[in-house]
Amino acid sequence: xxxxxxxxxxxxxxxxxxxxxxxxxxxxxxxxxxxxxxxxxxxxxxxxxxxxxxxxxxxxxxxxxxxxxxxxxxxxxxxxxxxxxxxxxxxxxxxxxxxxxxxxxxxxxxxxxxxxxxxxxxxxxxxxxxxxxxxxxxxxxxxxxxxxxxxxxxxxxxxxxxxxxxxxxxxxxxxxxxxxxxxxxxxxxxxxxxxxxxxxxxxxxxxxxxxxxxxxxxxxxxxxxxxxxxxxxxxxxxxxxxxxxxxxxxxxxxxxxxxxxxxxxxxxxxxxxxxxxxxxxxxxxxxxxxxxxxxxxxxxxxxxxxxxxxxxxxxxxxxxxxxxxxxxxxxxxxxxxxxxxxxxxxxxxxxxxxxxxxxxxxxxxxxxxxxxxxxxxxxxxxxxxxxxxxxxxxxxxxxxxxxxxxxxxxxxxxx
Length: 415
What we know:
By secondary structure, the chain is mainly beta.
């Protein structure tokens, strides 16, 4: 009978409903009690935050630097329900700088900032380390610093590095005066290998102090973000010295011997220019201006945009005419041409000694009767005695013969 009653009781839904209600009530009472009990919680590495820094900079030209610590450790007290789930990442140690007006060194206590859902009025700081934060408040300033740009790479064989060029030459930096005081220069470096052509690259730069140590750019403003660096690369080439000649009076390049104190020089320039240069010409040497031997120092002149790497600017040249001989003739066959209308000319030089150069056999058959002196008087503009060097010596009937040197005739000009 007793077992039958118990069986009916356990199968009764109302019974189990009452049991469930009692159990839920017990759990609620337990949980409520534990969530409202006070606890302490230590948060390590809480981030320090500055309140009002942007407004301070905008309105007073002041900026926060040299903050003594970036994180703090704090132990807080509160109910489990209020602070039980907090972590260090949820909390900030806030320093309020909004009321500061002057530059200087400050030490301030911080307050803790909690996320939404935490009743900050019910949280108490038990202990903190450190309990305050020191920092420097300094004025913003603008200063210019020199730029130094260097090339630290390598140049391909047969090429030459020129002077590195860069823009800008100075960088304006805006930031705390205490930071600007430590800056010595702006430094940019380009490292390219086996360069065989000029290149211009934009590169970032570093701020260095007087000892070459890098200074952080955080919190600073610049008028340029990069440095434009040009690396000039020239192609080098050895080219021969070539003596140009004005042939005449029987002398050609084939019957001359040319000696030079310098046979070649090294030049450099843009590859497109250098590749088109196969020799450097000096002179010209006029073979009709001397008899058999010529000696002179000639300037070495380079084309535009080409550099003389050898540094040799002159060459001593000796030209010797071979296989020819010279002989003097007295010329009396003298005439003029080109005299302007209205002028008359009376020759005052009645004979002229002329040196003729040519093959020996041709000279032996030549006579004065075959040689004429013709003066060009086309540029006559005045009257009186005039000495002219515009005299052409013409040789008739003798191959490969001609006069060498210059000749003058004197005329009396009248109108």
